[in-house]
Amino acid sequence: MCRGVQHPIRGLFLRSYLAQVSRDKLPDLGSEYEGDADTVVDAVDFVLQNFTEMNKLWVRMHYQGPGQIREKREKERSELRDLVGKNLHVLGQIEGVDLEMYKGTVLPRVLEQVVNCKDELAQYYLMDCIIQVFPDEYHLQTLETLLGAFPQLQVGNIPLLISIFLHVVCISLSIGLCFCSKLVNVLHA
Fold first, then answer.
1. Is residue 43 part of a domain?
2. What is the phi-psi region of residue 30: left when phi exceeds 0, alpha when psi lies from -120 to 50, beta otherwise?
3. Least confident of 54-63, 91-100, 159-168, 169-178
4. Could you tell me the end-to-end alpha-carbon distance of the chain, in angstroms, rounded to an integer?
5. DSSP string computed for 65-104
6. Within 8-69, where are the H helices?
7. Cα Rg of the chain, angstroms
8. % the chain with pLDDT above 90
9. Number of folded domains in the chain?
């Protein structure tokens, strides 16, 4: 049913509703819905698929309508961004998403959407969500992957790159200097 709704705003709200009602029914570690057929991987795939479709609808809003109402449309898009970001918050709350699943499944698929959307507002907001939602230790362990996506982002997102870089450096300094050397090696590569 969700795929049948092609209007971006209606589709976003329908998919947001789907995410909201299914949030507590996702198979997670220790939940009543985890079983032989349903696993944490299924929950992650479901949320990632919903995130992908919502991001496409959200980005499509940028190109709809006449150019004269661009400012109004961008304001509307900015107000609706939290609907898309909710999916990343749900992913961050799934207890079964450990470092290995984050490194192997979640981060690559989310970064693929962020890079491929080629939308400055979406890239800025989603990269910020990634940094805010997932634990700092995950970012330190996936630093190369995370920083590898930066050159593929839109040029207007350079302030984001600097703020994320500073965030990661501050984390590194608070955890230990060994991570700083890893960060420097990644940046020089």
1. yes
2. left
3. 169-178
4. 46
5. S-GGGHHHHHHHHHHHHHHHHHHHHHHHH-TT--HHHIII
6. 8-22, 40-60
7. 18
8. 30
9. 1
